Amino acid sequence: MIDYAPEHKTSEILRTQAEKAEAADRPAMESLDALRRDGVFALRTPREYGGAWAGAESVARCLSDLGRSCPSTAWIAGTCVTSKNLAVRSFPDSSVRESLFADPDVLFCGSGVPAGLGERVPEGVRVSGRWLNVSGCEDAVWAGLALMVEGKFSFAAVPVADLTVERTWHMAGMRATGSHTLVAEHVLVPAEHVMPAAPFLVEDMLLYAMTALGPVVGAARGALDAIDAMFASDRKPFMSAYSRMGESSGARQWLAEATHLVNRAERTMFAIARAVDASDVSEADMPRLKMELADAGRDCRAAVERMLDLHGASGFNTSNVLQRYWRDLAVASRHPHLNPYLAVESFGTRLVERP
């Protein structure tokens, strides 16, 4: 396992730039530069091209640490992990990989939704389509895009400079991910940059889940930092005789419950990540693991609800960092990788159908 922990300076940059990034609906350049310097965008670049090819636990730890300062920027780092992994799985040709990974720290974005069509022509493949919710697309160099080519589910590696960005990401939370729409209109892509999609491995699917859960756990941990600071201050429960938050047994209980929920989500995340790295997962495990992932996301949401109770209405002031963590977590924890009702459906089906 490759250990990663952001430099204190990097965490501080992400924290101070978070409000600016949210207002711009895209990550702050200062934050992206800091992640490049730290090697974050090379986490899933193959080692032979100068990257770390980090495992699931290292990825989860990195993204949760970053999410503690800025969940949106952590999310973009996670998207880069997913997109680079898909590129490696989709393009076995060494010359294509050398082109894609010439700069190991380059930012990738992408979409696994086959929202485009490819037509083979003598010069290559003509690609047209509209891919929604592509995180980090305004700052990425390469886009890995799912599409249908002659009826086959395929992936194309396309320079973002050849595509059009439509700024369609207007959300209550995770605004700084800049998850806008990428548009291709008859873009000519070299034939070797368009390949039939490789099968999705169980280990890969769980790695991708880590890229969603990591920032969510980080957001909950960041919110807890704000609450811990409140308990260390002279803040008191309003309309009470207490002189400090910690004097209230109810407040102490809510703090304990919130902390327990965040710790449990984190333990779940790392346990699944370690199982992935040990190749100790199979297709039969997926329904159970999806339930655990969804529960971890719900634990984080429940924890932040308790924190907001502790803070009171002032926690929703736009100048209060707690409300940003709340909004970011509310959006990110509803990613399909963390979908609770489909997880319950899958797990229930598995229980009924198992031998």
Question: How would you summarize this macromolecular structure in one to three sentences?
Answer:
The protein is 50% helix and 15% strand.
Structural notes for this entry:
This protein is an alpha+beta fold and 355 residues long. The chain folds into 2 domains: 8-196, Butyryl-CoA Dehydrogenase, subunit A, domain 2; 202-353, Butyryl-CoA Dehydrogenase, subunit A, domain 3 (Up-down Bundle), CATH 1.20.140.10. The chain has helices spanning 8-24, 29-38, 56-67, 71-90, 94-100, 202-232, 249-277, 286-311, 321-332, 340-353; strands spanning 108-111, 116-121, 124-134, 142-149, 152-159, 164-166, 180-189, 194-196. Strands 1, 2, 3, 4, 5, 6, 7 and 8 form an 8-stranded mixed beta sheet that branches. Helix 1 (8-24) runs antiparallel to helix 2 (29-38) and helix 8 runs antiparallel to helix 10. It is globular and about 80 Å long.
Roughly what is the average pLDDT, rounded to an integer? 96
CATH architecture of the largest domain, please?
A: Beta Barrel
Under CATH, the homologous superfamily of the largest domain reads Butyryl-CoA Dehydrogenase, subunit A, domain 2
Look at the helices and sheets and give the structural class.
alpha+beta
**Total strands:** 8
